[in-house]
Amino acid sequence: MTTNPTQHPTAVPGQAAPAGPRGALRSLAERVSGRLLTPADPEWAAAVVPWRVNVAQRPVAVLETHDAHDVVAAVRWAAHHEVPVTTQTTGHGATHVDGVSPADGALVVRCTGLTEIEVDLERRTAWVGAGVRAGQLLAALDGTGVTFLCGSNPSPSVVGMTVTGGLTWFGRAYGVGADSIRTVELVDGLGRLRRIGPDEAERFWAVRGAGGDFGVITRVELALHPAPQVHGGRMVWPVERLAEVLAAFRAVTATAPRELTVWLQVQHFPDVPFLPEEIRGKSFAAVAYTFLGAEVTALMRMAPLAGVAGRLTDTSGPVAIGALGDVAAEPVDPTPAMEYAQLLSTIDDTTADALVEQVGTRGACPITIVQVRHLGGALREGGTSAFGTIEEEYLLQGIGIPAVPAVVPAIEGAFVGLDSAAATVGTGRAPLAFLGETPTARWWSPETRARLVAAKQDLDPLGVIRSNRPVAG
Ligand SMILES: Cc1cc2nc3c(=O)[nH]c(=O)nc-3n(C[C@H](O)[C@H](O)[C@H](O)COP(=O)(O)OP(=O)(O)OC[C@H]3O[C@@H](n4cnc5c(N)ncnc54)[C@H](O)[C@@H]3O)c2cc1C
């Protein structure tokens, strides 16, 4: 932890002199209403495991907060005892930074009890607590005709997903998730609960879209967006059809209106006993899509894909807001995960052929999910948060599931294969939430980083807060 001697943590009000580690943790336990887990607890081994179960973490304690007062008490305690604080709601974004986990030696704050969802349909806004997962907010909005900007998976926290950018089903129509944040309530690095809105322009810019390096967010106010009618679903073919599916995907996305979002998926399931028979040892090409509007228009737009022969399943139909998290059929349970991502300016014939060669053969690819997301539309505009905008047309992603460590080199090798497939169209950039273990320089420009570092100095002068995306690099 970086500390500034002129602003030593003992300046934090309401704290006694530092005690030894055990006494110190006891003093924290006395100040909070939530559950404080320490290595002495029988549940400790399970408590430290994040959603990405292959990321080993060695925190000093885990606090499951009951309310915002707990967060204030925790950060003040941590500043006083010179213990870093890292926020981890689900561990969906858990990763190593320079080979170590940000949770190592830190107090992990899980905003578990902050489950408020307060929807104002008239103003089309919602206050959402930091413990709320995407699927829970979707369920609360079901039947209202409005949605929040939700991604492919129902299990990340709304706050974690949105403050790291938020690339969602409706980004082409409504922009990145971070731009939809109206107000942020955050406990800063000195333990002060602040409400940050547009009147604090530089802070407001920084705390939306650059991750969680500035404090612990307790809740956010989000703009909701019209979605009176959503049509969508998932079409699946055997992977041998990938070349045709990719050609149709390129044709559909070349002229897609902003209301239509289509993501191409290639899935390779290992031949392991715990997978259901229908997918075990099999490989598929698929597209998942959503359309904000009438079914007839969606079907017309999707016709080139629907025309690809050999389809195994097709779930196309009306999509309830509460079911949006299921459209992409992603894994929701904790899993080991390794990640690849690169933004592509386009997909030309050479790139399409190379992708089919790299990932289109049954049983030959160790990456479980390869995804190509169509971007564009409103993602090129707005940019009022530190996330900025995305100029590129597509995002190429890979998720490897290293069920045993022995497969790690094969997955790494396959990621190199994705790099070479994307060689002529890849820009080398990757959005913040999808960086995996690669450096943040792939997303933040030096100018953006300098502004973020200044905001960090302002909100967390003692360097108490640690995140999976440290702005100092
Ligand atoms: C299968 C899968 C699918 C995904 N799909 C999408 C998608 O469609 N679109 C998209 O944009 N992203 C997507 N992501 C990325 C995911 O949204 C980010 O990793 C997000 O940061 C996860 O947030 P979390 O709170 O659930 O995870 P955590 O690991 O708990 O948190 C991740 C980071 O977010 C910050 N953070 C979380 N909570 C707070 C808080 N209360 N205060 C301050 N900082 C906080 C912290 O810096 C923390 O290190 C996906 C990830 C996975 C694994």
TrEMBL record:
<dbReference type="InterPro" id="IPR016169">
    <property type="entry name" value="FAD-bd_PCMH_sub2"/>
</dbReference>
<keyword id="KW-0274">FAD</keyword>
<protein>
    <recommendedName>
        <fullName>FAD-binding PCMH-type domain-containing protein</fullName>
    </recommendedName>
</protein>
<keyword id="KW-0560">Oxidoreductase</keyword>
<feature type="region of interest" description="Disordered">
    <location>
        <begin position="1"/>
        <end position="21"/>
    </location>
</feature>
<feature type="compositionally biased region" description="Low complexity">
    <location>
        <begin position="11"/>
        <end position="21"/>
    </location>
</feature>
<comment type="similarity">
    <text>Belongs to the oxygen-dependent FAD-linked oxidoreductase family.</text>
</comment>
<dbReference type="InterPro" id="IPR036318">
    <property type="entry name" value="FAD-bd_PCMH-like_sf"/>
</dbReference>
<dbReference type="InterPro" id="IPR016166">
    <property type="entry name" value="FAD-bd_PCMH"/>
</dbReference>
<dbReference type="InterPro" id="IPR016167">
    <property type="entry name" value="FAD-bd_PCMH_sub1"/>
</dbReference>
<dbReference type="Pfam" id="PF01565">
    <property type="entry name" value="FAD_binding_4"/>
</dbReference>
<dbReference type="InterPro" id="IPR050416">
    <property type="entry name" value="FAD-linked_Oxidoreductase"/>
</dbReference>
<keyword id="KW-0285">Flavoprotein</keyword>
<feature type="domain" description="FAD-binding PCMH-type">
    <location>
        <begin position="55"/>
        <end position="227"/>
    </location>
</feature>
<dbReference type="InterPro" id="IPR006094">
    <property type="entry name" value="Oxid_FAD_bind_N"/>
</dbReference>
